[in-house]
Amino acid sequence: MYEEKLIFCGNSEKFLKKELIEHSNSSNGGTAFRIPSLIKSGNTLIAAIDKQSCGADWGYIELAIRRSEDGGETWSDIETIASPPARETRITDDCYASGFFIDPCMAIAPNGDVIMIADFYPECKGLHKRRLLDKKKVPYSMYQNKMYPVIYDRDGKFYLIYKDGVVLDNKYNETDYRVTDWKGSLYKGDEYVGNIFLNGKTGKNEVDAVTTFGAPLKAPKRNYVYMLRSSDNGKTWSEPVDITGDFLIKEDGTFIGVAPGVGLTTQDGKIIMPLYVDRKETAAIFSIDNGETWHRMTNQPYSKNIDEWQLIQAPDQTILGFGRQKRYGKTPVSISTNNGTHWEKFGKTEIFAPKCQKSVISIGNYVFCSHASEKKRANGVISVGRFKKAKGRTVGIEWKNEVEINKGFFAYSCLCQIDEDHIGVLYESEPSSYICFRKFKIADLIS
Fold first, then answer.
1. Is the pLDDT of residue 426 over 90?
2. Element (H, E) at 437
3. Measured between alpha carbons, how far is 176 from 190 in angstroms, rounded to an integer?
4. pLDDT, tens digit (0-9, with 9 covering 90-100), for 366-377
5. DSSP assignment, residue 173?
6. Cα dihedral angle (174, 177, 182, 185), rounded to 10 degrees?
7. 228 forms bridges with which residues in the sheet?
8. pLDDT at 171 over 90
9. What are φ and ψ of residue 165, in 5° steps?
10. Mean pLDDT, residues 170-185 taken together
């Protein structure tokens, strides 16, 4: 086992112990951090994170990364790759006058691109203040055989954001309005009139963000799923693209969120991304064209699991999904024997953990799962097992042993194979703002 390395470190005593913020600097620092994602692209490790203003699941949250080209020994300076629109940013969880990203999840497309998806919210508090969400407003509408975003005026009249940001009225006539960028900047003719994801006037700014004010036409308050892409191992990233309309159905309500960690690229080149909905069911979306378009099984829109989940594929192409239990106990599992087309409940596997996201990867016949091992979020371990077969088919996992990651607080994590001999784990080792990386020899884990 290698030494623990600090990758992201908060600089505010409001969210992290005073003796720990002394380790925050220009390379790793920000106000607060949560929700790690880790993947290998070419010879580069990419660590992604929620870069937060308040250490909560709302407020001003950007997406940020660091990169390592030497197996996790050294890391590039922190870089913000997506910033939400905001009209007010304050270093307190009392402030939610901002759009925000949350819960990054990455995958490697067959063409080598890094695909990242994440939740995006307009100004609100997300699931933590549901009365602010627009349950009755339709977020997309079909027009000319394609789904387009819908925005509303104060009287509830709807408008369509059409090609090139042109705004159509409710009779599909072109208006003087246009939306000029993914952030929701609205113009009427040549006049900037505000942001469709915000409400009200510009307020205080404590995190050096670009702030603005709300527009007269607004997007429904709900979560959206945005995608970013990198074609150069994380050096540069595309602007975020809204992909929610590709797969949203009415039954999802106001939330179909990204299950953070990593997606799965199957042996035949399908990218499968794990999602979940407000009523705790899971969903899977997939792409067969390197992330250009996304799909969902219409005859089985939900995936027979609960809450945040992660996927692995056995050598015989069987896919297993590890869910998040409702309380301390065994981990729920679902199974697909047809490449993610249909899912069945698969009982529970012998991984005891609290209610918390976990990460799982497979290497050959071995399975590795990082998770908290106590009744509360504490004492991180990697559980090591092997795929179990009967009559030539995968029927479960036989767990062999546990290897300690850390002592004390342990919450969200993400595993990644670094090379033939090593795996790495990126994990939260404080309730907020202290994200560490540790490398392990695979031989030591399976011995």
1. yes
2. strand 434-441
3. 9
4. 999 999 999 999
5. -
6. 180
7. 116
8. yes
9. 80, 0
10. 98
The two tokens of residue 383 are 């559980």
Evaluate if pTM is beyond 0.70. Answer: yes
Alpha carbon distance 264, 270 (integer Å): 8
d(CA 149, CA 218): 11
In terms of Cα–Cα distance, which of 338, 412, 410 is closest to 380?
410
Contact (CB, 8 A) for 125 and 58: yes
Q: Indicate the pairing of strand 100-108 with strand 261-262.
A: parallel
Which of 72-81, 121-130, 386-395 shows the lowest mean pLDDT across its residues?
386-395
209 CB-near residues (< 8 Å, 6+ apart): 60, 83, 86, 89, 98
CA distance 204 to 123: 15
Residues 303, 282 contacting (CB under 8 angstroms) = yes
The residues near 90 (Cβ < 8 Å, ≥ 6 apart) are 53, 54, 203, 204, 206, 207
CA dihedral 342, 348, 353, 354 (to 10 degrees): 70
Burial class (CB in 10 A: 0-12, 13-18, 19+), 8: buried
Split at pLDDT 50, 70, 90, the class of 1 is low
Torsion of CA 146, 219, 211, 81, to 10 degrees: -40
